[in-house]
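Notes, Module 5: Reading structure tokens.

Key idea: the token line is not a picture. It is a compressed description, and you learn to read it the same way you learned to read a sequence, by spotting repeated patterns. We will look at two proteins. The first is printed below with its tokens.
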Amino acid sequence: MKTRIITAFLIIACVIPPLVFGGVLLYALLSFIIVAGGLELMALREQKDETWPLLIKPLAIACVFALTFIKKDALLFPLLGIFVLCFLSLPVFTERFHAKDGFLCIAYITFFFIIARGFLHIYDRNPLYVWYIIVATYGCDTGAYFCGRFLGKHKMNPRISPKKTWEGAFGGWLLGAALSFALAYFLIDTMTLPQILAASLILTITGQIGDLAFSAIKRNFGIKDFSDLLPGHGGVLDRVDSLVFNFICFDLILVVLTL
């Protein structure tokens, strides 16, 4: 527990300055998540004693960077299409790269590209939106943990996550929604109260779905954590699983609100 707490404080100390000051620090934080998360995701292949052909990992990561930081939006989907075709074609040229590897690379590139672009879009609209999403996500995690620990009786999905309970999920939903609503009520003036309430209730559901989705991936590969990069917390993906779902969902919410 001591290690977990120390790591948590270090994570907070590394995350707050980029979110407050933006600029190069923000891009550095996002780049770290893209690289570390990508390596963790692609390491799943190595759980089955299979190694990647040389340069495939850095090539896939470079594709995400290209899609994330390109300035001309008109090039995004043509460029993504080219990357998809390239990775689907690689098995034709090397026996070490299988068709399933191509799909894994495409999944990584597409997923992280959507997350990164969505995050930047949200931050550019209003940096407080990012704090709102963080409070909704981790407020939900906190509420789910304590309610599940002291009140949990009915298992939610033992096949995927044996420790999660419906009582914990409900407690997390209430706390996450309440905290995020309070933050938005006092600090965000670009959303109406009904919009804030609806978004808070949605994010505290989608965040838990994201947690379960990533748990299902780990269960499928027989691992407890994606890595041990963050002592006591697992890997980067273990920390941002709920968060990435919520960034994607909130980006959609912003689009709907502007229709």
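Here is the second protein, with the sequence above and the tokens below, as before.
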Amino acid sequence: MKNKQPIILSTIILNYNSGDYLLKSTQSLYKSKLKDFIEIIVVDNASTDRSFQQLFKFKNNLSHPKIKLKFLALNKNLGFSTGNNRGLKKINSKSKYVLFLNPDTTVNPNTIQQSINFHQKNPQVDASTCKIILAKTNQTQPECHRGFPTPWRSFCYFSGLSKLFPKSKLFSGYFLGHLNRNKVHQIEACVGAFLMVKKSIGQKINWWNQKYFFYGEDLDFCFQLKKHNFKLYYNPNCQITHYQGISSGIKQQSKKLSQASRQTKIRSAKASTQAMRIFYQLNYFDNYSNLTKFIVNQAINLLEKYRVFKAKYL
């Protein structure tokens, strides 16, 4: 792509052993109906499955007058936060927005331009996500519309109270069940599968916290937005499809699709609960009594044992 117009959006796709999904995701972006110019930076976290090589091989078959494609291969798996931060060093200096997109997603043709338009028409929007549809169930992924995991909200979620009272503000705060998911509104947090941010805002919160390796970094990112009084919005008028858990192999809906080894599944299970410990230590540790902190830590330890058992034997 050669143009003299500025690139409005830089899209970063961080890949690790995503199989054919990386190519499918990139191809879906190339089917976008665009008014503005964008770039795609594909960062590979030292994959071993040739997903990155496959995309690089087919790059000459990908053509769009308003898309520029870049590649960055890392020598080892640096995790989600560090990998994305490395990708940020490659973005165009003139771009106004940055989109973080999972490689196991496909994007509807209008989603990218509509998301750009949403930001441009609503200057109060500092970051946004879209409606994310799970490929297996065709249902909205709950994590694209969620609250922060306070001890009370976490208790309601893991105990099943939020399922008993799915529309209650008191009991369903983990996924903000009391809010209408068919309307645009401000939310507390979202999953990092689709997260568009004003570049100037991301720079102010110093982008991704590299204490997180895998899991939890998107929640912490959103927490930093909230801490600095920036606004994150949920926009259901834009939509993507998510084949959740392809790299980790521990998500029920994609276990059969994932090529993750048992070792990778165990490592992912441990990383998911370690991320909880890091999040609570960084953001909630000083807010609660010693008793509450003890209960939270014990609950995380039990959850970790359960998830590791599932990764090993189920």
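Summary for the second protein:
- The chain has two domains: 7-145+181-247, 249-314.
- The chain has a mean pLDDT of 94.
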